[in-house]
Amino acid sequence: MRRRQFLIVLGSATFACGRSAQSQQTKVYRIGLLDYSPPEAGRVRLWDAFRQQLRALGYVEGRNTTFETRWADGKADRLPALAAELVNLNVDLIVTGGTSTAVAAARATTMIPIIMATGSEPVGIGLVSSLAKPGGNITGVTTLTMELSGKRMELLRELVPAASHVAILTDAGNLAYRAEDMRTAVQSSGLNTEITAVRGADEFEAAFAAMEGRGADALLVIPSPMFFGNRQALAELALKGKLPTVMGQREYVEAGGVLSYATNLSDSFRHAATYVDKVLNGAKPADLPIEQPTKFELVINLKTAKALGLFVPPSLLARADEVIE
Fold first, then answer.
1. The domain 26-144+264-287 is classified under which CATH number: 3.40.50.720, 3.40.50.300, 3.40.50.12160, 3.40.50.2300?
2. Which of 103, 156, 266, 267 is the most exposed place for a label (fewest CB within 10 A)?
3. What is the C-alpha separation between 108 and 78, in angstroms, rounded?
4. Predicted confidence (pLDDT) per residue in 300-318, tens digit
């Protein structure tokens, strides 16, 4: 009888422990993904890189992780409502693609952790106290959009030495962009520059017509998630207007731009997954330094350059990480 009672007690204890372990193992994290862009193939691939890295860290969709994805379709005014939706769903954390997206999420919650997969000027626009000590519920990865503008202008001058009037195209909904900072970044080039801001792809054609009408002979596109999602249209309009174009990341050049200089976005999205893992394991965003990229890619589309009748200096080709022919 005693042996039987012992076995019953032991069995009950084993069941309780097994149920407890199973409960821990089946904890399902709900992760919100918020992106400024339209859900086009290139942008989806970036989020796939993020998901793949999460999977490598043990977060499997449908088993212990679910995703709530919201796309703003390149419309900045949609971001606040989409961020509020994710907060109302009580997600465990929010991962953002783009500075304006991070701002919308920050305005929607001060409690839910926010991880930036991409973003720029987080200190300058007041998102965090400092890169080393963010101090709030936001951390992640920056992409140095504004800081690289001066370097891109140098490359443009090397690419098109005869250029005298460079048009600069910006996304008016990109909160990291400040016109004065842009002027400071490019003034050392000695070129005549003029800034044109657009709020969506429906304004592209009018903007290009205006830039060409003002005599632009080259174009610098300041990268943003909205531009990224519409990079094919930008490249086609630049080719149609015979404007040699320096853009943001390699995806812009793969779509038909001439030259890009930036960090690799897929790497940024993968790195954001490591922040998610740290936060879900108890780390506080306030204590996780925001990381800046240290590796940059120079990519040149020689096919587009030839279509424009543009001679690319051998010295520039020799420094390129990739040449598309």
1. 3.40.50.2300
2. 267
3. 13
4. 999 999 999 999 999 999 9
